[in-house]
C-alpha cells in the first residue's frame, strides 16, 4: 500500500488507520476508496462539498507570501471547487479582508 498524499511506500497500520511516517497523513482505506470516486471533494468531517457551498475554516492558516492569517472560525461563502488542484488546494474562494485565494478541503468544514 502507498500513501495517497505523498506516494510513499513506508506506510504502516495503526488500528484501523494507515499512517505515513513521511508526511504524517492518516487514512482509512475503506473511506479513501470512496473519496477517490469521480473526484469527490470532502471537508475535514467527510461531508461532500459542492460549488456554491459555505464553509468554515477550522484552524488558523498563514497566507503564503504575506503576513496575513486566516483565523479559525472564518466563514467563507460561495466556494468554487477546482478539478485540477494544485498542491492539494482544491477550493477557490474570496475571503473578506484578504481577497481571492485557494484552500485545502482538509482545513474546512461545511457550514
Give the helix/strand layout.
Blueprint lengths: L11 E3 L2 E3 L6 E2 L1 H7 L19 E3 L3 E2 L6 E2 L4 E2 L3 E7 L2 E7 L3 E5 L4 E3 L1
Antiparallel strand pairs: 1-2, 2-3, 4-7, 4-11, 5-6, 8-9, 9-10
Family: Belongs to the YjdM family.
Organism: Magnetospirillum aberrantis SpK
Protein name: Alkylphosphonate utilization protein
Secondary structural class: mainly beta
Helix/strand order: EEEHEEEEEEEE
| Order of neighbouring strands in the sheet with most strands | 1-2-3
- At CATH level 2, the architecture of the largest domain is Roll
The fourth-level CATH homologous superfamily of the largest domain is SH3 Domains
The top-level CATH class of the largest domain is Mainly Beta
Total domains: 2
Whole-number radius of gyration? 15 Å
As a percent range, the share of strand residues is 35-45%
Largest sheet: 3 strands, antiparallel
Family: Belongs to the YjdM family.
Protein name: Alkylphosphonate utilization protein
InterPro entries: YjdM (IPR004624), YjdM_C (IPR013988), YjdM_N (IPR013987)
Pfam families: YjdM (PF03831), Zn_Ribbon_YjdM (PF08274)
Amino acid at each position: 500500500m502507498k500513501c495517497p498524499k505523498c506516494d510513499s511506500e513506508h506506510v504502516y497500520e495503526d488500528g484501523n488507520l494507515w499512517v505515513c511516517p513521511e508526511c504524517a497523513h492518516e487514512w482509512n482505506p475503506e473511506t479513501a476508496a470512496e473519496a477517490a470516486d469521480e473526484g469527490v471533494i470532502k471537508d475535514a468531517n467527510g461531508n461532500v462539498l459542492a460549488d456554491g457551498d459555505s464553509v468554515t475554516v477550522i484552524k488558523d492558516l498563514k497566507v503564503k507570501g504575506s503576513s496575513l492569517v486566516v483565523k479559525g472560525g472564518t466563514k467563507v461563502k460561495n466556494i468554487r471547487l477546482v478539478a485540477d488542484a494544485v498542491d492539494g488546494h482544491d477550493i477557490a474562494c474570496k475571503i473578506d479582508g484578504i481577497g481571492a485565494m485557494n484552500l485545502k478541503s482538509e482545513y474546512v468544514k461545511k457550514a
